[in-house]
Amino acid sequence: MDSELVLVIDFGAQYAQLIARRVREACVYSEIIPHTASVADIVARKPAAIVLSGGPQSVYADGAPQVDPALFDAGIPVFGICYGFQAMARALGGDVARTGLSEFGRTVITVDEPGRLLADVPACFNAWMSHGDSVHAAPAGFTALAATQGAPVAAFENTERRLAGVQWHPEVLHSEYGQRVLSTFLHEIAGIGSAWKTAAIAEEAIARVREQVGDKRVLCGLSGGVDSAVAAAIVQRAIGDQLTCVFVDHGLLRKGEAEAVERDFVAATGAKLVVADAKDQFLRHLAGVTDPETKRKIIGREFIRVFEEQARALDSEADIEFLVQGTLYPDVVESGGGEGAATIKSHHNVGGLPDDLAFTLIEPLRTLFKDEVRQVGLELGLPEAMIWRHPFPGPGLAIRIIGEVTRERLAILREADAIAREELTKAGLDRDIWQFPVVLLGNVRSVGVQGDSRTYGHPVVLRPVTSEDAMTADWGRLPYDVLERISTRITNEVREINRVVVDITSKPPGTIEWE
Ligand code: XMP
To answer: Does ligand 1 have an atom closer than 6 angstroms to the CB of 437?
Structure first.
């Protein structure tokens, strides 16, 4: 890859990942490093520019991370954001003080002197702020560019030294012209080109796998989700028939999902696929079980059993050396690992393989964000339904059936869920809603009336949620007409269901899934 590298130094804000993504959206490759990295470590990576992220602390707080002033003498362009802006001001001899006026949320930015950084934005615009301290005087040699009510210096630059910064958060969507300001810094002030493209990502990932694997054999478990599918597609492109994919059909996927793996994925990639039909085995072990944690444990255990059986059979047939893992960049960052130790996601399909089945991991998505994974998947021609699938839990529909999981209940829930998903898609709301579980209350019945006769059927719960990361969530405000269509269709088309309710609980206190 010819793209130059931008390092985002993480001062502990939740925004570092977002900044790294925005840098990539400006077609520049970026990685995140902790603020504890030394200037020597940073310089050794030969970054084309550095972005200092926001952070939760005051620059004056005890133990607050500081910026080593030597960083600014290395000749590397630096852009400071929020806390990074203040730390930069302080390290360069500017004046940072507590004004008593904190600004949180939408704030009006007034541009006094556009300079280069703000040359392409209006004289007045809204941006997202989150600060207590503010910069009162720019460091010597810097031009103060903008101000807000609470921040006398809200942006500054020194184009000669290729250093600039802003008090607001240009990376968040609520900040107007945020991407433009970031792009101006990267391309105009730092002088970086636009070489990072998703087509190049796919090519590079394919080349890397080819080099790592040589003529050895590789195994990949498919879950039906986007990560494992894209990882497998990359490896397939790289080494063709040396890859064998295994799909454990536990019978707990939604309507059409097993088929998407068995038929559409194979058609799109030409991958060699072994399907382990374990539907009966899972149902047998789940019979009579109602406790959510017990369900999860049984499913995790049986999954490993089936996958291990398949892996052993394939390994004895032809020695397998590698296992593909769909680890994404956020997993790598969150587990604190930049280099070295491979982190195994807690996803149950590989976490528990026994030691004597030791494979070396291949992680072709290790440097990518979810939206980049989707782009690569589209470029490799994977089915859209797989690419845009909402997150779906490993234990599948089993934790969306309250009560015992049976074949009949699975069939009922599958139909109701398919209707809800279809109507959501028709309404064009797939991207607005993070996840849309439909939950079958298997042990509850209520009285209803249909035609001339009394019914005694089950309710289903619609659980649309909006979220950024599934850690917190809000209930999704679906339009009434969409809810009405879903309700009418489910009660008309799924005979066993006579009542549809909507879950309006946020997370916390409610989780997204019901079990
Ligand atoms: P909760 O229900 O805890 O879910 O709000 C948060 C996110 O995690 C997913 N989830 C799971 N994913 N195995 C998984 O792979 C599981 O056992 C599991 N339980 C919950 C859930 O769908 C949501 O995206």
So the answer is: no
Class assignment of domain 5-189? alpha beta
User: Does domain 396-502 sit in CATH 3.40.50.300?
Assistant: no
* Average pLDDT, 10 consecutive residues per value, the chain (515 residues): 84 84 94 93 97 82 86 96 94 88 88 97 94 93 96 97 97 92 98 88 92 96 95 97 97 95 93 97 98 96 94 94 92 62 37 79 92 93 91 96 98 98 97 97 96 94 92 94 98 97 95 96
Q: How many CB atoms lie within 10 A of CB 123?
A: 11
pTM for the model stands at: 0.82
Contacts of 443 (CB under 8 A, 6+ apart): 290, 402, 403
Distances (CA, A) of 415 to 96, 317, 383, 411, 497: 60, 40, 21, 6, 10
CATH superfamily of 198-387: HUPs (3.40.50.620)
Cβ atoms of residues 400 and 439 within 8 Å: yes
Identify the pLDDT of residue 352: 67
Q: Whose CA is nearest to atom 16 of ligand 1?
A: 393
Q: How many CB atoms lie within 10 A of CB 460?
A: 28
pLDDT score of 355 = 79
Domain 396-502 in the same topology as domain 198-387: no
507 lines ligand 1 (CB under 6 A): yes
- Cβ burial of 131 (10 Å; 0-12, 13-18, 19+) is buried
What phi, psi does 138 have (nearest 5°)?
-70, 155
**Residue of 348, 513, 514, 515 to mutate, ligand 1, most atoms within 8 A of C-beta:** 513
The ranges assigned to domains in the chain are: 5-189, 198-387, 396-502
Residue 22, classed as helix, strand or coil, is helix
